[in-house]
Specification:
Elements (H helix, E strand, L loop, with lengths): L4 H13 L4 H8 L7 H9 L3 E4 L3 E4 L4 H11 L2 H4 L5 E2 L5 H11 L3 E6 L2 E7 H9 L14 E2 L12 H11 L3 E10 L2 E11 H12 L2
Parallel strand pairs: 3-4
Antiparallel strand pairs: 1-2, 4-5, 5-6, 7-8
């Protein structure tokens, strides 16, 4: 949960002046005591402040969990995206499988001139390779999920939003795209990818700081 500007001001006042009463905080901010009631409740609930009867508010600080949550919410997709692994629609099923293993990824984007046409996952490749298909001649465009059904994120989306999409749609990776409108038709320029591994690494980095 992100603190509002006034909640941050209250936390700063209590950190510098505490212990301090609610009336004194209201005077610092030039507002009524009742106007601060909800903000003080939120800060106390989060563990940022502690209140003692007849004494006032003490500054405790954000818990580790809250600090990690705050940090994660501050990241946008463009802060953490990685290079997309891409093949063209004419790439064979066999060569796509080789690319999957050599690049050690779970999802490959199918693009033409950097514009997204579709995606293929490990499951897609496994199903296709187990069928009666010639993997050396079948183009990957025959089995890819078309762009109209692809779940994606944009660079300005938060990492938390990206993680939620991956959970909601049960996918391991999302293309990061810039949407361009051309002749009333949308095109999706690929600028990278974000994966569950990305989210996990970012979470760990925030936790050990």
């Amino acid at each position: 949960m992100k603190l509002s500007q006034r909640q941050e001001q209250i936390a700063h006042i209590v950190r510098e002046e505490g212990p301090v009463t609610g009336d004194a905080i209201a005077k610092y901010l030039d507002v009524t005591r009742s106007a601060l009631r909800s903000d003080l409740s939120v800060l106390t609930m989060l563990g940022v402040l502690d209140a003692r009867p007849n004494v006032g508010y003490y500054y405790v600080g954000l818990s580790t969990e809250t600090q990690v949550s705050e940090t994660l919410n501050s990241f946008t997709v463009q802060d953490v995206l990685s290079q997309a692994v891409v093949v063209t629609p004419e790439t064979s099923l066999y060569d796509t499988i080789v690319t999957l293993f050599t690049e050690d990824v779970g999802t490959i984007l199918v693009c033409e001139d950097s514009y997204l046409l579709g995606v293929v996952s490990r499951k897609d490749l496994l199903r296709a390779s187990m069928g009666q298909n010639n993997s050396n001649t079948m183009p990957i465009s025959m089995i890819m999920t078309p762009v109209s059904k692809v779940i994606f994120v944009e660079p300005a989306d938060t990492l938390v939003e990206a993680a939620q999409k991956m959970i909601d749609y049960e996918v391991d990776c999302l293309p990061v795209v810039i949407i361009e409108a051309e002749a009333k038709k949308k095109r999706y320029k690929v600028v990278g990818r974000v994966s569950k591994t990305t989210v996990t690494k970012t979470y760990l980095e925030c936790s050990i700081q």
